[in-house]
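A common beginner's mistake is to predict each chain separately and then try to dock the pieces by hand. The better habit, illustrated here, is to supply every component at once so that their relative placement is modeled jointly.
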Amino acid sequence: MNELVKFEQYLRTHGQKMTRPRRIILKAFIETEGHLTTEDILREAKKVDPGIGQATVFRTIRLIADAGLAREALQDDGARKFEHLADHPHHDHLLCVGCGKIIEFLSPAIEKEQQKIFSQYAFLPRGHMMELLGLCPECQAKQKKGE
Amino acid sequence: MNELVKFEQYLRTHGQKMTRPRRIILKAFIETEGHLTTEDILREAKKVDPGIGQATVFRTIRLIADAGLAREALQDDGARKFEHLADHPHHDHLLCVGCGKIIEFLSPAIEKEQQKIFSQYAFLPRGHMMELLGLCPECQAKQKKGE
DNA sequence: TTGATAATGATAATCATTATCAATGAGGTA
DNA sequence: TACCTCATTGATAATGATTATCATTATCAA
Ligand SMILES: [Mn+2]
Ligand SMILES: [Mn+2]
Ligand SMILES: [Zn+2]
Ligand SMILES: [Zn+2]
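With all components supplied together, the output reads:
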């Protein structure tokens, strides 16, 4: 797993240590697709070692994100969600406000326009978050039936 | 103030009542520009009536948002922020990760592309959140000096 | 192998938000 | 206007996610 190597490198260059819990948490996170809460990650990690604590998951997921291996997905409320970036190119989200369904998409046109905004204000780009909110076809049909 | 009329209308059509605290909170919110937390709003409202409780601010700001007079600004963490929509057309945010400075902008090109995404997936648009993160010119200079 | 130091996990603390509830207020009706 | 019903209020407790604390344990460079 290449992610493990990257993570070890990140830790080394930041004066931190690779540990058994960190290895387990990283592996559980990378091997699970989707938008995960720390609770989700803890559940997976506990399958390997039930002794792992949730505080360690919070600490480790932040390290993983800082290492550039994960990003925080937009949370409406409740718990934060993370998704890994392994073989997962950058994308944005289209979310159904009715059922919570998430569609991932990438719009090169939008990405290009965003760069224009950055340069227009002389900002050094550091990323962006974009979430489109709408009603999916199924929820539209459900709503029509409802009234 | 036109917003007061709209809010009264919203309340009436939803079987809810206009009250003195609600009037004070709405006025304080509309008359303050920027991205406000409920604590900010409470502070302003207390200047008019110190007896107002923070629970009422939480409840009222949600009503105001539901009435279409406010929207939630993207919060990284900590308290939620709201901004009113009175004489304030839709816009997105460019945020400096160094100093927290916020620039409001509108990109018609991006808005148009977002509509394309919605129709591509047959979603009924309900809004969007977009935040560009970067380093402002001042913070870039500061950083260069730092090392 | 050792020793300095970082990491762990249990637990308490924090902080924003929501729920509860007795008292009050709004506003339609007679 | 007086009344009556039901929404609203503010104080306070509860909740839920995240962070801080701290004694114990593990890592890893020398
Ligand atoms: Mn995603
Ligand atoms: Mn704004
Ligand atoms: Zn849906
Ligand atoms: Zn800045």
